[in-house]
């Protein structure tokens, strides 16, 4: 049967067909839908882990137990999981183990565009790079074979375009794979220095064999057409190259890109007149090929920044410029992402934006949008969890140097579980005074509403233990904890004011469900979500002061004649603007 | 089958572009074409501009369409039409929904919503314009805007050999099927 699947859906299908039985991940664009789709196969135990390191370790444990297992994450997630990654390369596996990294060239939704192919070489882990959905499924299955045959974990590297593009995939049946026997093997699985030294030697031997495999496998294949131009390429760049060059060039398409097939590359290079390397981001292939003494044209023409596409290839390598209809830039205004109408984060950032002599260290999630106009209530955003620890560092630097700055660290519920807790421990342990605000919107918002340890549900939809954030903070030793309703501006302001005064660790938890969340019935009742009335502007009372525009709700617009206007299809009746209007011109519809 | 095509759907998060392109690509798939469809998730969904690209033919390589390469652009929102117009082939078709969704810089008063976008585009090429939101409201559900636009697209490209009503039945939730089929046919009419 044929179906149109995204690369992510195809990887999930591949895992299913390969007989995987354990899968763990932390959500992150563009990787999230891999586990969401794995969860549809009841034969596989799947879970959201609190972070990527845990996800990979869970998969490692399952592999040692003898099961085929999978861990999936976005590119920066691999940084979090790097610690176990480098050592599992040494120990090897029992059941096949695949780590999926979903890179984000062009940074559609990321804080950097690191090229994770470098991890394969760095961590000494064989890498496969599919170029479309069909290959995403095929390669996932092959990855398990290679993993078990060579006793190594495999890095399956995708990019946003692979993850989120649909292509035709041929579906097959699930392979029945028995869990392997687990035999205690201390020299293999206990990476003490004495064992590790031997394991490293073994790994280098495995890599030699894997290079031989790389030279022979059809994952690395030559397509002969015109030999005047030869193109070495991998991943989605292959599709772009085919689009531009068609039959006017020959291709060495690499699907197995670590270790590289040096012999195959040499042979191919010898037979073509001019050799291009077409790859996105870093000169990963190019550097290796040049080190073999082969002349290639690559990054001197193709940019190493941003996402590649056929246009760039045609322009840089062939000097082609397509005829286009001119666009009038004056008639295009930017459309940056923004917090939704009724977003529970809005009130908090509105109140923070009014505070003077305050620094707000931010984190990764929807609330990063608090840095955008008109709120602009954020000073930093580095990586998952850094709001709390970087905030602590900032306030210590201020303290030591006699500066009076109050630091607020804002972090989401899921991000707090991911890597915020350790930062908070640091603050309490080292007597910091930065205030932590945990924006508990009862879900992982930005990536599209995944459950997390605080929501009471698992990825597989089961009711489960809900981790209590207040109790965690208490257990860590935070003495000042306030749980507030962020839609109530008075309450929000009071909590912030209190934190300004307290010279000890303090945590404010803003608790209100994400406006886009499909809340379970208990929650709808608890927060009274069913009977909220929307707001409208009483035009007689509106003085056109534009104060309400400062909350940055996309449902509010302004007309110089009529004053403020609330879009009744967008407003959810959160009442934040209502509390801001100094003239009581915003009222509840029907009240 | 020698035909091939590049279709670009542009608009704003929440306008139902993803569903429209799902129906479109499923129809093309079942008609025997190779199909690739590309969409970007994440930040773009938070009120940002959203595009999906659908390519079909005997064999499709790149999942994305280059500048000057789209056979048709279906713009669910006016300003988005201008944002993407350089992706249209000089002799390509443009379907525009005469509908404004102001972005944040406009909402907070930093910029104004650009005037006469459709007029300016009409100068440059043939435009099929419609008020899909009004049409959808008349039919009885503003959320069927996307399917009105889909109907237009199908008519404009002459993709009539495919049983679209069947695809709508497969991909739309039961009680919404009839109204969406209505929206689809209305869209087709409007493109004629
Ligand atoms: S804050 Fe009140 S008075 Fe001022 S523009 Fe908005 S609705 Fe009108
Ligand atoms: S009540 Fe005001 S701030 Fe809240 S969603 Fe409606 S318009 Fe936006």
From TrEMBL, chain A:
Its EC number is 1.2.7.8. The keyword Transport applies. Binds 2 [4Fe-4S] clusters. In this family the first cluster has a non-standard and varying [4Fe-4S] binding motif CX(2)CX(2)CX(4-5)CP. It catalyses: indole-3-pyruvate + 2 oxidized [2Fe-2S]-[ferredoxin] + CoA = (indol-3-yl)acetyl-CoA + 2 reduced [2Fe-2S]-[ferredoxin] + CO2 + H(+). Its cofactor is [4Fe-4S] cluster. Keywords: 4Fe-4S, Electron transport, Iron, Iron-sulfur, Metal-binding, Oxidoreductase, Pyruvate, Transport. [4Fe-4S] cluster 1 binds at residues 542, 545, 548, 581. Pfam families: Fer4 (PF00037), POR_N (PF01855), TPP_enzyme_C (PF02775). It comes from the Bacteria. One of its GO terms (molecular function) is metal ion binding. The keyword 4Fe-4S applies. [4Fe-4S] cluster 2 binds at residues 553, 571, 574, 577. Residues 533-561, 562-591 form the 4Fe-4S ferredoxin-type domain. Catalyzes the ferredoxin-dependent oxidative decarboxylation of arylpyruvates. Heterodimer of the IorA and IorB subunits. This is Indolepyruvate oxidoreductase subunit IorA. It comes from Caldisalinibacter kiritimatiensis.
TrEMBL record, chain B:
Residues 13-188 form the Pyruvate/ketoisovalerate oxidoreductase catalytic domain. The keyword Transmembrane helix does not apply. Pfam families: POR (PF01558). The keyword Oxidoreductase applies. GO terms for molecular function: indolepyruvate ferredoxin oxidoreductase activity. Keywords: Oxidoreductase, Pyruvate. It is an enzyme of class 1 (oxidoreductase). Its EC number is 1.2.7.8. NCBIfam families: PRK06853.1-5. This is Indolepyruvate oxidoreductase subunit IorB. It comes from Caldisalinibacter kiritimatiensis. The lineage of its organism: Bacteria, Bacillati, Bacillota, Tissierellia, Tissierellales.
